[in-house]
Amino acid sequence: MSPRTRPLPPHGKRARYLRGCHCPKCTAAHSRYCKEYRLRTQRTGRMRAEVAQAAEHLNGYIAKGWTQAALAKALDVNASTLRDLLSGHTRTTDVDVVARMLAFDPGDTPPPSEWTDPTGTIRRICALAVIGWPIYRIAREIGLSVESVWNIIRGDQKVSRTVAARTAEVYAKRSRTPGPSAITRTKARKKGWNGPMAWDDIDDPHALPEPEPARSQKRSEARAEEIRFLAGFGIAPEEIARRVGCSVDYVASQLGGWRAPGIPRTKEKAA
User: Fold this and answer.
1) Which end of the chain has fewer surrounding CB within 10 Å, N or C?
2) pLDDT above 70 coverage of the chain, percent
3) Does 156 map to a domain?
4) Predicted local confidence at residue 88, as pLDDT
5) Which domain holds residue 31?
6) 139-156 pLDDT, tens digit each
7) Does residue 221 fall inside a structural domain?
8) Any idea what the CATH number is for the domain that residue 145 is in?
9) What is the rounded CA–CA span in Å between residue 107 and residue 234?
10) Using CA atoms, how far apart are residues 107 and 209, in angstroms rounded to an integer?
11) Does residue 184 share a domain with residue 129?
């Protein structure tokens, strides 16, 4: 298999001249850049500076635990550019970049971590699967490959703060609506995964899922509360039953107060 190469920039760009195209348009673009560069240098002084000292300064922070990505964000420098500067691949850069590198001093501030506890992310993905959202749909909405999502579930891949935040957004959007896949729902339950109702604090690593009976009771109480809420607007029982997903008799029993949520038919007055 031949190695992948970047596509050439369009004609008339200096970048294409640097890639070997010396046609009139590309040559003109290169000449124009050189003239503008000389003018800027004459007006403002030196434009580029040696980066060795600044790179040594930052490499000291990398030894203390800072990552190149964290440094690039703190300095407002492109991550790949900073990588080339610190590795010595690029020996000069703009003077203002060198100045920012030399001025960098976080004091006693600890290096920011790119990674976070994966507990909440794993539980959210599994919970969405339990209610019928396929893994491939979850992966697509988070912005990851299906393989990466499975690696996260198995604990074989670290979770960045960005991925954790995107997963939380998807979960907030989808966790209140059943997904379209009965197959995913069945497989998830066979794996012993827990749905959204199982967690009081889904991010707490020490939290345990609630037993299924307790979850069923919670769902029933939430449904009963929704029935009473809709009835307060004068909506007909038939329409309430359609919206909530239950029978008209169940709506009547809740509104009549003679059937407690989650309890089989009884003549006892609901508490």
Assistant:
1) N
2) 88
3) yes
4) 87
5) 14-44
6) 999 998 999 999 999 999
7) yes
8) 1.10.260
9) 63
10) 42
11) yes
Same-domain status, 37 and 58: no
Distance in angstroms (rounded) separating the CA atoms of residues 212 and 195: 10
Q: How many domains does the chain have?
A: 4
Q: At how many degrees (to 10) do helices 95-103 and 68-75 cross?
A: 110
Nearest to 227 by CA among 258, 194, 250, 208: 250
Round to whole Å and give the CA distance between 90 and 81: 8
At 221, list the tokens: 């109480």
Buried b (16+ CB within 10 A) or exposed e, 172-208: eebbeeebebeebbeebeeeebbbbbbbeebeeeeee
Q: Are residues 124 and 170 in the same domain?
A: yes
Q: Which two tokens stand for residue 119?
A: 């507990």
Q: Is residue 66 part of a domain?
A: yes
- pLDDT at res. 187: 94
Q: Is the dihedral of CA 203, 204, 206, 209 positive or negative?
A: negative
**205 in a domain, yes or no?**
no
- The token duo for 110 is 């600890």
> So what's the pLDDT on residue 54?
92
Instruction: Give the pLDDT of residue 259.
Output: 62
160 and 225 share one domain: no
